[in-house]
Amino acid sequence: MEEKIKDYLPTGYNNLENFFDEAYPADIADFLMLLDSDEKEYILKNKANISLIINIISYLDYENQNIVAKLMNEEKLSTILSRIYVDDAVDFLGSMPVGKVKKILNLMKEQKASELQSLLGYDYESAGGLMTTEYLAFYNDMTADMVLQKLRKISPGAEMIYYIYVISRKKELLGVLSVRQLLAAQPDENLKDLMTENVIKVGINLDQEEVAHVFAKYDLLAVPVVNKRNQLMGIITVDDAIDVIEDEATEDIYKMAATGDIHGGLLAAVKKRIPWLLILLVGDLLSGSVIKNFEESLQVVVALAFFIPVLMDMGGNVGTQSLTVVVRGLATGELHFANFWRHLWQEVKVGFVMAVILGSMLSLIAFFWQGNPLLGLIVGGSMFMTLLTAVTAGTSIPFIMEAFGADPAVAAGPFITTLIDISGLFIYFTMATILMEKLI
Amino acid sequence: MEEKIKDYLPTGYNNLENFFDEAYPADIADFLMLLDSDEKEYILKNKANISLIINIISYLDYENQNIVAKLMNEEKLSTILSRIYVDDAVDFLGSMPVGKVKKILNLMKEQKASELQSLLGYDYESAGGLMTTEYLAFYNDMTADMVLQKLRKISPGAEMIYYIYVISRKKELLGVLSVRQLLAAQPDENLKDLMTENVIKVGINLDQEEVAHVFAKYDLLAVPVVNKRNQLMGIITVDDAIDVIEDEATEDIYKMAATGDIHGGLLAAVKKRIPWLLILLVGDLLSGSVIKNFEESLQVVVALAFFIPVLMDMGGNVGTQSLTVVVRGLATGELHFANFWRHLWQEVKVGFVMAVILGSMLSLIAFFWQGNPLLGLIVGGSMFMTLLTAVTAGTSIPFIMEAFGADPAVAAGPFITTLIDISGLFIYFTMATILMEKLI
């Protein structure tokens, strides 16, 4: 087994012990995630001691944390959990079945267990689910020197000591100051005179995507989380925001291709993909029925079939272009409802120019290829109309979905393509049938 | 004009002055970017003083920085540039024409100007292009107390004081320590005994996407940039890494839809999109020629045309699913070359199961719709083979592109779809022609 695993060791290491001793925890985690499940099992059972797991656990993804949890007993898991940051511990617990979580919490110190318990109550994808309770907060009547003395003694347990939050006796968030400001202050100055009152903060139920936007927008290292009464409940650190930004972009990309993620086995992958494909199959059969309804025209002029691919694909491509710009613009916050008409008008103009260019080109191609000017007119004209429909649908549909609270990324790629296929084929064959008499 | 602009003010503000006084700089920048160009011009000329611009300039995107640069004279611009962080100044200068940059640098203090000049020399999308020269570095023989005294006096000019870098007299990077470690240290301890020697650092020419991966992987607030001789050249801060992660995801999503970004006018948008469409048009015409080559078969059995949409679309959809998983996996670092065969095998298995389900469904549909079992066999069989081709091509092509140093995202969506269309139609009509005699 060890010989097999060796192939995956980064260059410069030729045995596991050496690698585990010297590499960064994040690299060890990456290496583990590359392996097959039997190889992982071998390592976790024979080679990984508890301190290694403590170092790498927060760098493993959900599926791999789950594998670790399965292979260890509750006692070991409670030791690991009590020695990592609270927010990482909550994530790790989230990968285990409820029964196991209960047993583990029973084995832990009461205070830590109840802290974890309360954090587990928040939605995984909300500010509450992202936050840690390891932050620094002091009352507003303390002096700079008092705080500095405390900082010197503090255990490395607090994940983020770079911002210091100032609270009232009722735990209300009053202000914030940086360690830099603290160091530059006079020793006897009160926190309330040093702090910035205009704190950027997030509500405990805010969606994680919105939380990530706050980080991206305001360039922060940490953001405080408050409840409805403005009481400080925790903080979210920038490293978690980075993970959310990556994950949300990945999620959008997968949704736009109607696919699932890279993890999980054969059945999981099929289960994620096939429902979308079945829906799309129905849509494509509708495209087919459009053609069937015009069977007569097709029988008379078989050449009409040659242009089916180009009409279908170009409509889909142009629609997807428009749609992609909107979906991504809405996700990064560059587009808002306020822009809808302005943006639609811009897309229609772009679409018009492209429709004129591509429509007239295709007209000429059809004419020279088939030697029939009327066929050229039909093909070029349908292309023109299909492309205009495509930009309009591609721009409007994601805005409409967002307005109804649906995720615009779901509307993407294949769905818009199928919709435009149906309307494009309908335009094409209707035009052909009307001009039929002259065509033959 | 002000009445018109009022519509865009966030709720709670009813006049510009009030908004500019109270809002966060990032929100003011967002507001400005929403406006039309004449509205922007009005504000920049009449309402925005220089300190407002200083506050918001780093939150504006490239296009809007360019607008600001156009509307201000060199003197004002040099004042702005001398009062913002060095890395932001370099970005701002990057939005101006070379002639203007020269004039501005001539107006600035020589030291600052030459610093900016040297940073401008790095590729915009490399570590050198992202870094700032405002960092804290001390020699390894200094004591904790000496450093703390210096920190107390330091101007807020250093963008990141949370890591302290330790260097030799030759400027070689020897280690790093956090302010937390410094505060906890004995006053007379030397930096060389406090520091961590195993520093995560990046080379000055590293691509920005790789730089962002380093942040995402190791959970850092800043990363030092070194040249080939391990001399400390600057640092990159996490806020810039977040922007890169968002930008790179956006870029990939746009590439996969063969489209450009949201900014710029009509012509810019057409110019970005139409080259791709022209290439795709050629591909689609090739699909059409496949049909033309089988004109005879089509003439005999017109019903063959009804299934063209479903074969084309489903092949494209399944290929795009496989491709999306690979493109995103390569981008986030979840997939590597080492995984190629393993991942291909997984995709082929997934594709096989889906091909069996969808192929047999379509067989039955074709049979019942047209009452012809042979047609059912042709349609279902081609679907099966097309889907297997689709997963294989969708998985392999991005890996191959990456191997040749090309960006796999470019291969995506429409290109793979067109390729699979051609092969799918070829499979379909070949099968139909071979079985033709029995079909009629």
Describe the protein:
2 copies of one chain form a homodimer. With 440 residues, chain A is mostly helical. Chain A folds into 3 domains: 2-121, Alpha Horseshoe (MgtE N-terminal fold), CATH 1.25.60.10; 137-237, CBS-domain; 257-439, SLC41 divalent cation transporters, integral membrane domain (Tetracycline Repressor, domain 2). Chain A is 66% helix and 6% strand. Chain A is built from 23 helices and 6 strands. A 3-stranded mixed β-sheet of chain A has the order 1-2-3. A 3-stranded mixed β-sheet of chain A has the order 4-5-6. In chain A, strand 1 (137-139), helix 12 (144-153) and strand 2 (163-167) form a beta-alpha-beta unit. In chain A, helix 5 crosses helix 7, helix 7 (74-82) crosses helix 9 (98-107) and helix 15 (208-218) packs across helix 16 (238-256). The longest helix of chain A is centred in the C-terminal third of the chain and has 31 residues, at 340-370. Chain A is elongated and about 95 Å long. Chain A starts with a helix and ends with a helix. The mean pLDDT of chain A is 86.
Question: What topology emerges from the helices and strands here?
Answer:
Two copies of one chain form a homodimer.
Chain A: H1 2-6, H2 16-22, H3 25-34, H4 37-46, H5 50-56, H6 62-71, H7 74-82, H8 86-94, H9 98-107, H10 110-120, H11 127-130, E1 137-139, H12 144-153, E2 163-167, E3 173-178, H13 179-184, H14 191-194, E4 202-203, H15 208-218, E5 222-226, E6 232-237, H16 238-256, H17 266-293, H18 295-300, H19 308-332, H20 340-370, H21 373-403, H22 413-434, H23 436-439
Parallel strand pairs in A: 1-2, 4-5
Antiparallel strand pairs in A: 2-3, 5-6
Pfam families (chains A, B): CBS, MgtE, MgtE_N
GO cellular component, one term (chains A, B): plasma membrane
Keywords (chains A, B): CBS domain, Cell membrane, Magnesium, Membrane, Metal-binding, Transmembrane, Transmembrane helix, Transport
